[in-house]
Design brief:
The chain is built from eight helices and no strands. It is an all-alpha fold. Helix 4 crosses helix 7. The radius of gyration is 26 Å and the shape is elongated.
Length: 121
């Protein structure tokens, strides 16, 4: 015979018809879901130093502007007749592939020079 571990929801539901059962379930859930203690004020900054600020570079900003002009990543993908996952990968990478820059310009009006300044001077 083996023991079957039940999800928390089933354990919490068992015995809820009595006051004692409700108290036991409440105590059980409180013991399980204790949030982790917060570090002392300033301790994290002391260990790791100040967090670096991420600056959005102009090509990344141009890509985000193109996505906004199209109405979102999915809408831009529809206009370009590609999968939305491809546009999502562009956003993660921060730039448009060279062969797609002209199509994005035609679809959104954001210039190819802004999208890929390394290719189109």
């Amino acid at each position: 015979m083996f023991l079957l571990s039940l999800p928390v929801g089933n354990i919490a539901a068992r015995g809820m018809h009595t006051e004692r059962g409700r108290e036991r379930c409440q105590a059980f859930l409180e013991n399980i879901f204790q949030p982790p203690p917060l570090p002392p004020q300033g301790a994290l900054a002391t260990l790791h130093g100040p967090m670096p600020k991420t600056k959005i570079q102009p090509p990344e900003a141009a890509l985000l502007h193109a996505v906004a002009q199209a109405g979102g990543q999915t809408a831009l993908a529809r206009k370009l007749k590609i999968k939305p996952q491809a546009v999502h990968q562009w956003v993660l990478a921060g730039r448009v592939p060279p062969l797609r820059a002209l199509a994005v310009e035609a679809a959104t009006g954001v210039s190819r020079k802004a999208l890929r300044p390394d290719i189109y001077p």
